[in-house]
Amino acid sequence: MTRYFSALVLALLAATALVVPAQAHAELKSSNPASGATLPAPPSTVELVFNESIQLPDGAAVTVTGPDGAKVPVTKVQAVDATITATLDVKAARSGAHTVDWAAKSDDGDTITGKFTFTMTAPEQTSSSAPPPSSVTMSAPVSNAPSSTAPAESGGVPLWVWILVALVVLVGAILLVRRRKPEDA
Fold it and tell me: Could you count the other beta carbons within 10 Å of the beta carbon of residue 168?
């Protein structure tokens, strides 16, 4: 019986060692504009750099929302290797806090999502009677820390769990059948 238990433990360790590395997802390494940056003018592009190669998701990859809740038009979204770039309509951007919502598809097929904000301090382009600001703070903190990335919920159990359960059931069935067989004397 000890021999069967040892075989079961070794089989479980082997299955776990082969399957666990596949559960890692791509993570956002950096962005331009950086999360929390204060910009004196609207950025013409948004660039997202990941730690591994990614693809565009089935839905929108980049959405930018202005301080008034209006969407800033995003065009020319493309993914090359580990970078997603998107062109923004700078004429539609307004002063204030902007939120960038992003999505990307990992090599394993799962879609990851996240968001970050940046602030634009440029004066409004539509109002010519507004006085210019007396001072402008220009700072763009650079952070290599990933933004708050939360994997999209797939609603299911990861594949490695199902493989592990199937392996346990299979080994258990083999042990049960061998136990019930009359041993040859």
Answer: 14
CA–chain centroid gap for 47, Å, is: 14
Q: Cβ contacts of residue 47 below 8 Å, gap of 6+?
A: 31, 32, 83, 84, 85
33: cis peptide before it, omega within 30°?
A: yes
pLDDT on residue 12:
62
In terms of C-beta density within 10 A (0-12 exposed, 13-18 middle, 19 or more buried), how is residue 87 classed? middle
Neighbours of 85 (CB within 10 A): 17
Q: Summarize pLDDT for 12-70 with one digit per residue, the tens.
A: 666 665 554 445 678 888 898 888 889 888 888 989 998 888 888 888 889 888 888 88
| pLDDT digit string, tens, across residues 128-178 | 444 444 444 443 444 444 444 444 344 456 677 778 788 888 888 888 777
CA nearest to 53, candidates 84, 22, 87, 21 = 84
One-letter amino acid at 12 equals L
